[in-house]
Amino acid sequence: MTNRRSAIILLLVGVWLAAPSPAVAQTITIVVKAARLIDGRGGPPLEPAMVRITGERIAEVASTLVVPAGATIIDLGNATLLPGLIDLHTHLTDRDDVHWESALTTTTPPEAALWGARNARVTLMAGFTTCRDMGPTWPYVDVELRKAIDAGAIPGPRLLVAGNYVSSTGGAGDARQFSIYLDVPFVRNLADGPEEIVKAVRTNFKYGADFIKILATGAVLSKGITPGAQQYSDAEIQAAVTEATRWGRPVAAHAHGADGIKAAIRAGVRTIDHGSYLDDEAVAMLKQHPATFYVPTLALGSYIQESSTVPESEKARGRVVTEIAVGGFKRALAANLPIGLATDAPVMPHGLNAREIEYRVLLGEPPMHAIVAATSLNAEILGMQDRVGSVTAGKLADLIAVPINPLTNMSALRDVRFVMKGGTVFKDDLSGTTRPRP
Ligand SMILES: [Zn+2]
């Protein structure tokens, strides 16, 4: 018995010794120094700032702190530190030079996975350490991307993934926009009626989705009906939310038109993505439903117009919807609604995600408000506020740095020079001392 027990203990030690480097990194202490810290909670910056990191978590934040013996010091000089940024709406496995409706006939799942790895790295290096990925065209490639990132096989943001987004037949997420004589048997993301939707929700969770994405209305970049039109009935949206709630997980609703936005709020979705036709009634409803958040995607408008793959008909839709969406954003801002931050990359190219923050400031949002949206507010929307979203003791050490103070010039976020995720340095073009992980 004793021998057997010691054999088991030896086995466990063996497993621990063989574990990848993150397990070892837990004992390492790093102190990051910079001229200024914007901690993500909206208060005045801390100047100067020191952050002590033990393993993957932040242990202490102060203007000056005692550096423990043996700690690695990373001195970022005159830079401004911020929490890792969060994007609530990406499509990391999609390329910006392939229209998603062509992807099923011109690309393969391995191609999506490889480009997903590339896009994940580009997004992380741009300062985004957490992303909610709103779905690949090839189902569940995002689940594999998340696993590879979590296992340390490739660099990328920590991900929450949609798996296989749920659309009505002929709806905004129906990627089989080709002849009825063609089929792609492995892509089954269409569900009509509450029963099929319940099945789709269960199937998604079975295969590793973290949340459910449904397409409640038409879309800009789709051959289906107009973005303003509701595509899922109130009962269908409700069925998705009721079933996902049983699993303890949220639903994100792609919704442009006002009717679809309101049906999704009534059903209790977590996020209204795009939310373009947000009117006064929708704003009032969101105030009454504080667990539902408006998550616009605004900066993509100009990229749609410049795209070489988007047809003129969809560009025309884009011009109309973008203008209306800017009006909705200003309405939400005036009403002091919390406004999540998202990009819909690659509609805007991967890696330019921070342009959304810059654009929102251009539209009148106070700079600190926009930074809070991209950090602690987004963390709260994801239900991850205990782990990410601010530079405070106890959180995961997701830190970025830029050479210019973004509060005086938000374009500073175009030039992220330092990226740490979970205590591991992935980029350091500032201190000249740390060798980032490749
Ligand atoms: Zn999208």
Q: Can you describe this structure?
A:
With 438 residues, the protein is of the alpha/beta class. The chain has helices spanning 2-18, 21-25, 100-106, 109-125, 141-150, 193-206, 234-246, 258-267, 280-288, 300-306, 312-334, 355-362, 367-382, and strands at 29-34, 36-37, 49-54, 57-62, 72-75, 80-83, 85-90, 128-133, 158-161, 212-215, 251-255, 271-274, 293-295, 399-402, 418-421, 424-428. The chain has 13 helices and 16 strands. Helix 5 links the parallel strand 8 (128-133) and strand 9 (158-161). Residues 5-26 have low confidence and may be disordered. Zinc ion binds next to loops.
Secondary structure elements and pairings:
Elements: H1 2-18, H2 21-25, E1 29-34, E2 36-37, E3 49-54, E4 57-62, E5 72-75, E6 80-83, E7 85-90, H3 100-106, H4 109-125, E8 128-133, H5 141-150, E9 158-161, H6 193-206, E10 212-215, H7 234-246, E11 251-255, H8 258-267, E12 271-274, H9 280-288, E13 293-295, H10 300-306, H11 312-334, H12 355-362, H13 367-382, E14 399-402, E15 418-421, E16 424-428
Parallel strand pairs: 1-5, 2-6, 7-8, 8-9, 10-11, 11-12, 12-13
Antiparallel strand pairs: 1-3, 3-4, 6-14, 14-15, 15-16
Helix pairs in contact: 4-5, 6-7, 7-8, 8-9, 10-11, 12-13
Bound molecules: zinc ion.
Short description:
The chain has 438 residues and is α/β, with parallel strands linked by helices. Helix content is 36%, strand content 17%. The protein binds zinc ion.
Order of H and E elements: HHEEEEEEEHHEHEHEHEHEHEHHHHEEE
Gyration radius (Cα, Å) is 22 Å
Going across the biggest sheet, name each strand in turn: 2-6-14-15-16
Task: Give the overall average pLDDT.
Answer: 92
Contiguous uncertain segments of 5+ residues: 5-26
The proportion of residues forming helix, as a percent range, comes to: 25-40%
